[in-house]
Amino acid sequence: MGRLINISPYAYPGISIDHVSVMQRVCSIYKDITPDMLMDHTHKRKIVEPRQLCIYLMRKDLKLTLQDIQQKFNFKTHAAVMHSIEAVEKLLATNKEYRNKTKSLI
Predict the structure, then answer these.
(1) What pLDDT does 59 receive?
(2) pLDDT > 70? residue 2
(3) How far is CA 41 from CA 10, 19, 44, 51, 71, in A?
(4) Among 10, 31, 40, 63, which residue is least crowded by beta carbons within 10 Å?
(5) Please, what CATH class does the domain formed by 5-102 belong to?
(6) DSSP labels for the chain?
(7) What percent of the chain shows pLDDT beyond 90?
(8) What is the pLDDT of residues 29-46, one digit of tens each?
């Protein structure tokens, strides 16, 4: 089981979360995506964007290491994890629509 930790009360009011909870929360704003779909090794944009957001939140809020996240998503290297985090940071900095869509989680 993943680490349980209390994080931002604005994003997750009064609950402890783990990586599965993060995935479920992300799926709640991407209505046509399930946690199982996030684990697929597909490059379809509709899956990649929420997967990257999960990775970003796991790193930022759960403080998981790159290697921990790599293992959870069965990536070959942690470079994919680093790329995902950088992609979300770039979207948050440059894309107002994305910021608005994800503000309940960030």
Answers:
(1) 95
(2) no
(3) 31, 18, 9, 10, 13
(4) 31
(5) mainly alpha
(6) -PPPEE--TTTSTT-EE-HHHHHHHHHHHSTT--HHHHTS----HHHHHHHHHHHHHHHHTS---HHHHHHHTT-SSTHHHHHHHHHHHHHHHH-HHHHHHHTTT-
(7) 72
(8) 998 999 999 999 899 999
